[in-house]
Specification:
Number of strands of chain B: 2
CATH superfamily of one domain in chain B: Cytochrome C3
Chains: A alpha+beta (about 250), B mainly alpha (about 130), C mainly alpha (about 400)
Distance between the termini of chain B: 46 Å
Structural class of chain B: mainly alpha
Radius of gyration of chain C: 22 Å
Helix content of chain B: 25-40%
Strand order of the largest sheet of chain B: 1-2
Largest sheet of chain C: none
Oligomer: heterotrimer
CATH topology of one domain in chain B: Cytochrome C3
Structural class of chain C: mainly alpha
CATH superfamily of chain C: Formate dehydrogenase/DMSO reductase domain
Radius of gyration of chain B: 18 Å
Distance between the termini of chain C: 5 Å
Number of helices of chain B: 5
Number of strands of chain C: 0
CATH architecture of one domain in chain B: Alpha-Beta Complex
Largest interface: A-C, 44 and 43 residues
Number of helices of chain C: 13
Order of helices and strands of chain B: HEEHHHH
Order of helices and strands of chain C: HHHHHHHHHHHHH
Chain lengths: ~250, ~130, ~400
């Protein structure tokens, strides 16, 4: 009985002091150490399935640069500067349901220390996009050189099948443009003009949104996606779209 | 009527006994800062209930006037890490460190809207 | 088939049509007037939405972009494909009993698909762009492209078939009828695939949809054939010939079979969405079976759409026309709601539901706006209008000795 009470009241002593060998042994079992207890004799661990998965399909980077974004989810404070910057940069209309990126809020009452998490979302610029497959007129397409999923608005018939196909709710019909609109990593407004990042990443005060090149081993995005200390995951991996937006925390 | 006034008296007496009455005049509603970023909450209630007295923060760290601190140029996280403002306690030893548990105080635009009774943050409810 | 007609002159044809229209009662003209008014109101509403922006008039929104107009479109093309397939049993595949229903069914398959196109024109935001870019920028991996293209081909074949039937040219009619059936099956299963091949929508996803759509079309075809043939004889105030009675009897029997097939399909769809509580499908099935969508599902889809008509068809023995008419009317209402359920429920669960975020914790709701209902009514109005006019112009679609 006594032992049980002790277990319930254990304090996480932090993972900073876990030896690298220990971590690697756990990783081989498909587990990442999330905490140590009782003077380092007890470990808590989570499955690294998602991160293993993420780096598996990140193996192929057919584009140069291979644009990608990593969200340091734990750092997001929903100040929404990213959303404001996106609206201003990309002329997103001020109507309900019109946005290229937004922030979702998750309540985590049971989590140690946190009451809530904010989860920024945007187009995942998938390697296997559903939206481009279902579009009848190739109005939306994956650009051959940049890998960004773009819109050719004159071809959009407004059937909204791409909205149904997208597992990320990344698309909306823009009444002003008379076409479906979506995040294009600020291709027309910034990247093609020589800027190195997107408006949202640029505006983020908390270093949540890290924009970069997955095909470059020196790039921060590459390093975060390929490290083994922290779990890295993608949203809705079961949809099989091979997204290029990754999430991490801790 | 008599029962109700009795209860009120009893509660007041108990509060006095518990020493809560010293902070009887603190603002009930949480304060939500909107600069330099939107939606950062401070709750007097939470802090008073932890046993903190008014003079522990006022007017050494914060002036009495709500949100006065956000007029200052140095009201940023970096200052907190240096022990200013919230960082005086939120340093990892007295209270959780300022560079952890971000979303505890940063309730965001959504949390702010909710605190003000707005409906923002609900994607549904169309029409 | 043996004898050749002496082709009537144009004057004779016009006189015949004029006489039939003259002899029609006020009831007929009242119905024509109502149908035409509904179509006009619908077209006006649709054009207004198109010009001023759909957003202000329709209740569909970002998370539920497809509403009652898509459901109505699906309903009409399901009906058209069903009319084509069931009627082809006789005049294409040579089963004598089905011969008498050929002409009216082919005519109605054209009327219903035109009604479907009429409604979808107001649902798609920029239909004129479709006419251009579907042709010069086709996406061959897109089911919606195949559907649109194949339905275009289908309509051409059905039209040609009807013309050949009118001219009593049996052989080209059979060739067109067969080709139309093939195009119809291909088009319609592609419509199923529009829903079924969306990887991010678990309630729809899988090979079920294309298969279900074809079986469901045939079931719908039986209901529509029975309803319009019985109504047609009422409109023309004619006694039904024995061979037509026989045709409706066998159609009823096929209807009974197909209702049980769709009940079987539906049962397994529900079990598949419940067993193991699959992500993305289970909450939808829950709401369908005993949640907030349960009444609509059980009352309209199951009771009115299938179970009720099944009992009535069996009781009618394929001969009690009154029971058969009630059953087919009930079925059509039920099937319309069935199409709505299919379209809505696939979108009802937000794509981020499993993320557990505040924004998307609940099922999404959608109820059509008045404008959407008016346009929907226009689809039915157009079918009614074409049906009524068709009865008089083509003289009750009499099949002479095919």
């Amino acid at each position: 009985m006594n032992k049980n009470i002790d277990l319930n009241n254990l304090q996480n002593e932090g993972v900073e002091n876990v030896p690298m060998q220990e971590r690697r042994d756990f990783l081989k079992m498909g587990l990442a150490i999330t905490g140590i207890f009782a003077g380092g004799s007890l470990f808590s661990a989570v499955s690294t399935f998602n991160s293993a998965h993420a780096s598996d399909f990140a193996k192929k980077y057919p584009y140069k640069p291979h644009y990608s974004m990593v969200m340091q989810q734990h750092r997001c404070i929903d100040c929404e500067r990213c959303m404001d910057a996106c609206v201003a940069t990309n002329h997103v209309p001020n109507v309900h349901g019109a946005y290229r990126t937004t922030i979702l809020e998750k309540e985590t009452p049971d989590a140690v220390g946190g009451k809530r998490e904010f989860i920024p979302i945007l187009c995942n610029q998938c390697n296997l996009p559903q939206c481009t497959r279902v579009c009848p007129t190739k109005a939306t397409y994956k650009d051959k050189t940049t890998g960004i999923v773009l819109m050719d608005i004159k071809k959009c018939i407004g059937c909204l099948t791409c909205q149904e196909g997208c597992p990320y709710n990344a698309r909306y019909f823009n009444e002003e443009k008379k076409a479906v609109d979506k995040c294009n990593f600020c291709w027309d407004t910034r990247l093609s003009k020589g800027e190195k990042d997107t408006a949202c990443a640029h505006a983020c005060p908390a270093d949540v949104r890290i924009f970069g090149d997955l095909s470059n081993q020196e790039d921060r995005v590459f390093k975060i996606v390929h490290q083994i200390e922290k779990a890295v995951w993608v949203l809705r991996p079961e949809a099989g779209t091979r997204p290029n937006v990754f999430y991490t925390k801790g | 009527m008599t029962i109700r006034s009795l209860c009120i008296t009893a509660v007041a007496a108990l509060s006095m006994a518990a020493g809560v009455a010293v902070a009887a005049s603190y603002p009930e509603a949480p304060i939500v800062y909107d600069k330099p970023v939107k939606g950062v909450i401070f709750s007097h209630k939470t802090h008073v209930e932890k046993g903190l007295a008014c003079d522990m923060c006022h007017n050494r760290l914060f002036e009495q006037q709500a949100k006065k601190a956000q007029e200052n140029k140095d009201f940023v996280m970096e200052s907190l890490y240096q022990g200013k403002y919230c960082g005086a306690c939120h340093n990892g030893s007295l209270a959780f460190a300022s560079n952890t548990r971000c979303a505890t105080c940063h309730i965001g635009v959504k949390g702010d809207a909710r605190a003000k009774g707005g409906a923002k943050g609900e994607a549904k409810g169309h029409h | 088939m043996a004898h050749h007609h002496t082709t009537p002159s144009l004057n004779e044809l016009v006189t015949g049509v004029a006489n039939r229209l003259k002899t029609a009662g006020t009831g007929f003209y009242l119905m024509v007037f109502i149908a035409a008014a509904v179509v006009l109101a619908s077209a006006g509403t649709g054009l207004m939405a198109m010009i001023k922006g759909h957003e202000a008039y329709y209740n569909v929104y970002r998370e539920v972009p497809w509403g009652v107009l898509i459901a109505t479109y699906v309903f009409f093309v399901v009906s058209s494909t069903g009319l084509c397939l069931i009627s082809s049993i006789g005049h294409v595949f040579g089963v004598q009993d089905f011969m008498p229903i050929a002409k009216r069914s082919v005519f109605l398959s054209i009327a219903t698909i035109l009604s479907g196109f009429f409604v979808i024109a107001f649902e798609i935001k920029l239909p004129w762009r479709m006419a251009i870019w579907n042709v010069i920028s086709p996406n061959l991996t897109s089911n919606i492209w195949w559907m649109g293209t194949l339905y275009g081909i289908y309509l051409a074949f059905m039209f040609a078939e009807y013309v050949f039937l009118l001219m009593n040219k049996h052989r080209p009619a059979v060739i067109c009828g067969f080709s139309g059936s093939v195009a119809g099956i291909a088009a319609h299963s592609n419509l199923g695939a529009v829903f079924g091949l969306l990887m991010g929508r678990p309630y729809w996803q899988g090979p079920y949809m294309p298969i279900y759509f074809i079986a469901s079309a045939m079931m719908t075809g039986c209901a529509v054939i029975l309803m319009f043939h019985i109504l047609g004889y009422k409109v023309n105030k004619q006694e039904m010939a024995p061979d037509m009675q026989r045709a409706l009897e066998v159609t009823t029997k096929i209807g009974i079979l197909l209702i049980t097939v769709i009940l079987f399909f539906t049962t397994w769809k529900l079990i598949a969405g419940a067993a193991g509580q699959p992500n993305g499908a289970y909450p939808v099935v829950q709401s369908e079976v005993f949640g907030h969508h349960a009444f609509v599902f059980w009352f309209f889809e199951i009771l009115m759409g299938m179970a009720g008509p099944l009992v009535l068809f069996i009781l009618s023995k394929g001969r009690n026309l009154k029971l058969m008419l009630i059953a087919s009317l009930s079925m059509i209402v039920g099937i319309f709601v069935m199409r709505f359920n299919l379209v809505y429920l696939g979108q009802a669960l937000p794509v981020y539901y499993d993320l557990g975020v505040n924004e998307f914790k609940e099922m999404l709701h959608y109820s059509p706006s008045v404008y959407e209902w008016v346009i929907t009514a226009g689809g039915f109005g157009l079918t009614a209008l074409l049906f009524l006019i068709g009865e008089k112009v083509f003289d009750g679609h009499k099949v002479e000795d095919l």
